[in-house]
Write a structure and sequence with these properties.
By secondary structure, this protein is an all-beta fold. The chain has one domain. The protein contains one helix and 15 strands, in the order αβββββββββββββββ. It is globular.
Length: 238
């Protein structure tokens, strides 16, 4: 069974442990190398913020197997949970853990404004790696104890580039870079120095039954800190 990663939200927003800049993690031969985190870091030039993680294997080399339908569709992800307030990117304030994600999922397209595969059709993407902001909250109904927060579009706040799904998910179109063992992405977040973060590789699943959350974190490959305590700190770019 994959480990749960439930942590009290108060610990995320007010964590005051020893300051660290990067997070390092030892290689685990029992983990899939493409999702086995060895190092994670984040830097800012004051205007833009870049998140990175290094893996024991080739970043992005493992994607979900298509099942041909939305119900039960799998999502693989490289995720940086942060202590940034969700309102920074346009979600409701204090509504959960604002997390930056690089995801791939061949069974659905949640980036209607962007044509990731550049084939002229912005509605047939999803299988290629792309970026999202998501708000994570605890839910014991999910296998790993977390879900993407359920929302009501038009009632709950959503960023202008959100695909208007009933979950706290934004599709802002920042291009991830997966090169060798490194996954990296730069986002337009300013004044982020000393913000805390962590790094997670995880699998999610889409559910269409009303009694379970729409998008659950169902399995965790690796957590850089080991306990989702957000020990990393965004540092000034040198």
């Amino acid at each position: 069974m994959k480990p749960q990663i439930i942590v009290p939200l108060i610990a995320v927003f007010f964590f005051d442990g020893a300051i660290a800049h990067e997070i390092t993690s030892s290689i685990d031969p029992d983990k899939t190398p493409a999702f086995d985190i060895t190092r994670a870091g984040a830097t800012t030039d004051g205007r833009l913020t870049t998140f990175m993680m290094e893996l024991a294997g080739t970043a992005g080399s493992v994607k979900p197997v298509a099942i041909g339908q939305l119900a039960g569709a799998k999502v693989e992800s490289y995720v940086w949970p942060t202590s940034l307030d969700p309102s920074v990117v346009g979600f409701d304030a204090e509504s959960g853990i604002l997390s930056l994600a690089i995801t791939a999922h061949p069974d659905f397209d949640d980036t209607p404004l962007y044509d990731e595969d550049q084939d002229g059709d912005p509605a047939n993407d999803g299988a290629d790696w792309h970026s999202h902001w998501v708000v994570l909250v605890e839910d014991e109904a999910c296998g790993a104890g977390l879900k993407v927060r359920d929302v009501s579009p038009g009632v709950d706040l959503l960023p202008a580039t959100a695909p208007y799904l009933p979950i706290a998910l934004d599709s802002p179109g920042m291009s991830p870079i997966l090169d060798g063992s490194t996954a990296k992405i730069t986002v337009p977040v300013s004044d982020s120095e000393n913000i805390s973060f962590d790094a997670v590789t995880a699998e999610l699943q889409v559910n269409e039954k009303t009694e379970v959350p729409l998008l659950c974190v169902t399995g965790v490959h690796d957590v850089a800190s080991g306990d989702l305590s957000l020990p990393g700190r965004i540092t000034a770019q040198k």
